[in-house]
Design a protein that fits this description.
The protein has 108 residues and is mainly alpha-helical. It folds into two domains: 30 residues; 57 residues. It is 69% helix and 0% strand. The model has no long low-confidence stretch (mean pLDDT 84).
Length: 108
């Protein structure tokens, strides 16, 4: 059997008290930094949506509408889902709501 020291039956060298303290401190600091980063991210809210992002989402929704008109429900839903990732607020658009309802009626 090989142990942590890499030899058969040998014990790993014990850490000194100072090494254990430094290991604990560095682990604690890393954990606190990660927690602080998470808190800052949560408090910051969603990233702002640029006008080019909104235009891209609008184009995706135009493509979705064309697919829905052709009753290509899978393609329509795919484009709407892509647009939702880019611009979630666009889901409130009455046309999008109507297209989602049509998809639900035909695919479910």
């Amino acid at each position: 059997m090989v142990d942590a020291a890499g030899g058969a039956g040998e014990k790993a060298p014990a850490r000194s008290g100072r090494a254990r303290v430094w290991a604990w401190v560095s682990g604690s600091v890393a954990t606190m930094a990660a927690a602080a980063g998470l808190v800052v991210r949560l408090l910051a809210g969603p990233a702002p949506v640029s006008s080019s992002t909104i235009e891209y989402a609008r184009e995706l929704r135009v493509q979705a509408a064309a697919a829905c008109e052709k009753q290509a429900w899978d393609a329509c839903e795919k484009k709407l889902n892509e647009a939702r990732v880019v611009d979630p607020n666009g889901e409130k658009d009455p046309r999008v709501v109507k297209e989602r309802q049509a998809i639900a009626e035909h695919l479910r």
